[in-house]
Write the structure tokens for this entry.
Amino acid sequence: AQTVTQSQPEMSVQEAETVTLSCTYDTSESDYYLFWYKQPPSRQMILVIRQEAYKQQNATENRFSVNFQKAAKSFSLKISDSQLGDAAMYFCAYRTAPPNTNAGKSTFGDGTTLTVKP
Amino acid sequence: GAGVSQSPRYKVAKRGQDVALRCDPISGHVSLFWYQQALGQGPEFLTYFQNEAQLDKSGLPSDRFFAERPEGSVSTLKIQRTQQEDSAVYLCASSLVIQMNTEAFFGQGTRLTVV
């Protein structure tokens, strides 16, 4: 079974600064997908960024980028120019790729609460 | 609809009561997922549908939990004889196609409190 570990229960960053959230995972599969989700107090999970394991290039979405180290099974999220609206809980998630029979289900870490200080 | 809609947003049930949680996915979305999120933890997979077919129910914690999606659209998660350990937020998500790298859109969840 896959596991996802987020070792930082809480992080804080000054507005306009950069912060990196850590995520490691354990799997024996060679093909999979990785995601970062944001969950504000409204509880709705919002996709921040995704990475396909077969792609070597790190994904970027505006101020958000990842550092994907497949051999180390590490998938960290970097938020640049942090804004007050970035404050939320962030979850790292792993999803098996088809045709594996477990494809479809995602495994989430326990989250990192990010505080942005003005 | 504009997004995934879940109802009710909040549910308080007495221990032993049966509850039904509803999920309206985005129109046309093939895949539908249910997750359970305990306080301070990440979501845990419960079950997955592709259209009306329940392809994976390995995460359902006991036979008191039952999910259905009879017409391949709306889904209902039913919990029989609720216990205090069932208290959690139940999240529903849907995605357009079957390929697993596509984005899953989440609803706002139903917070279930069993007293």
